[in-house]
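Hi, here's the filled form for the chain we discussed.

Project: internal
Contact: R.S.
Residues: 159
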Amino acid sequence: MRAQARAGVAVRLLRVDREHTAFVYLGSAALQRRTAAWPVFAVSCVVVGVGPNVDGVNATWVMVALAAVLAVYGVIRGALRPSWGLPLQAGALVVLAAAALVAVEAKQTLAGVLVAVLAHVAWDTYHHHPNRVVVRSMAEFCAVLDALLAAAVLVVTFT
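And the returned structure, exactly as it came back:
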C-alpha cells in the first residue's frame, strides 16, 4: 500500500511539473518574449504553492484560466505567427492536460508510465537547440527537472 501512495505522490508531482512547463512555454509565446519565461514560471509557482492552501481555490483551474487569458492576449497581439510560437504551445498545453487527466483516471502503473513517458525532456531539448519560445536557461532547467522527475516516477512505480 505504501508503494501505491508513493507512486501517487510522484505522479501528482510530475503532473504539477507538466502544468508549470506548459504554462511557461505558452506564456512566453503569448507575450512574444523569451525572457518572460522566468517571471511566468514564478507566477506558476505562486499559484501552485499558494492555491491549495486557500479554501475553494483549485490551482489547476487557476492555471487554466491564466493560460486562457495569456492565449487571448497573444492572439490580440498577433502572436499566431510564427507557427512554433503560440499555436504550437497552445496545442501542447491541450495535449499535456489531456494526458494528465488520463493519468489521473488510469491504474497506478499505467499512470506512472504514461506521465513519465510524456515527460517533455524532448520538448525542452527541441526548444533549447534553436533557442526559441523560452530563454535557453529555462529550457535547460526544465529538461533536467523533467528527466529527474520522470526517472523518479518510473522507479517509484515499478519498485
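Let me know if anything looks off before we file it.
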